[in-house]
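writing this on my phone so excuse typos. first protein, seq and then structure
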Amino acid sequence: MDAPVRPVRRFVVASAPAWLTCIGYLAAFAVAAATWSVIHAERKAAAMARFGETAAVELAFLAAEPLLRQDRIRLSLLAGRMVDRPEVGGIAIHTVDQQPLVVVGASARRGADQLLGPYIEPVTVDHTVVGDVRVILHADSFGVSAQQLLAAAWPYWLAGLVLVAGVVQCGWMLATRPRRRGKSNGATVAESVPHTTTYLLVANLFARHGTAADQREPILRDGLAIAEQVAAGRNGAVAELPGTGLLLAFDAGEQSDRAFEVVCAALELRQRLATQQAEQAESDEVPIDARPWFRYCLDATTNAPNIQLQALGAQPQGRAVVLLSSLAPDGEIIVCERAYAQLAAPERLLLDDFDNPAAAALTADAAPQGIVRGLAEAAPNGDS
């Protein structure tokens, strides 16, 4: 007997949130239906009272003369016209001694389940009561009953119940599904991929943004060759950022002073690109601005191993480094807080403050530490 009971019990326990949701949904539906029924009944009664009283007053005014003369024909015509209205279920006209003179439609004494009334109005002539009129109304003409509403809307309520219960059950299953466990000691297997630290150095050809593409191309071509030489001496990689400049990446590796070595690479790259600009200025090959061509920014990022360099520059941290490089002064290097924190002896750098409100507003993924002016006199150059 236990075998078939256990699966049912497990199903009930596992579906407890869905069952509770169904109960709550049905309770809310019952409260809503009861509230609607009460409000609708009050409005329906008020509407019927206004209509019934108005119809009775109107009929009493028209029936005064024929009732005084006991004219059954005219009274029947008046009652028939009144009963033709869809809201009216029956009309009865009585004499002063309560004898029915004309009865059209449902009887005022007999009534019916869907008929309400009567609404009685005395008929007076010269302040003398000569009889009364009684109006009976069709209840269905003044609104939809609760039974009719339930009969029409139950498929929609049922569909809503199934949908809500299904969503709650799926959410509960996703939230409580067991995590993967290790086979040896039961420890949780980490699902995230281990990340590595990479230093990003951007050389932004910002000063040449307004020039034609054929003038930028030789500058980027020669600059890329220089950047490849600088990166090759320090186990780095280089890629061209279309429309922006150059991107150099250096893995942190196991070296204790890798951050300082990358700073030295940035200083070397700036010096060699400045030399390229000076040599270019002596030739007539490309018209050139007097101000430095490139602006620089250095930061440390965390990323998955073996990621492509172009993809690294497209990540939020990479885009932030590119944006910060455009905010740097011409020919200057901005070092960010993450890269600066990796320095074993930060006092070896000569830094100036970088005060630019746009940097804080536009670069939430990279915070500038300062502008690198050079190395302290006692600092080594970081070359291997």
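second protein below, same order as before
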Amino acid sequence: MRPIAIALMMGLAVATQAGAAKSDRDKFEDTLHRVAPLQGTFNTTGKSRTLCVCKTNERAGVVETLHFAGDHYIQCMVPTFNSSGDLIASTSCSDWMPVAK
């Protein structure tokens, strides 16, 4: 009886590991979010991973990812603050480049 229980436990462990394996898309999204977190992250947490600058107006922003209709869009989101220093809006710019560390 004991060998059967051990064999069942081993089979269950292998099946659990196989079910937990990440797809190629999951791996890509994990890598993407390390550099460009989801859109709205800066607005809600005040944290960012990569800075960017709009080429047209030289305003600084944060790089974020927008998921729409199954696609991934990387955007430079430029924050706007009121006179008290509170974030009131973020807008994207189409012509940007990342700021090197």
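Strands lie at 51-54, 60-68, 71-81, 87-93, 96-98. thats all i got for now
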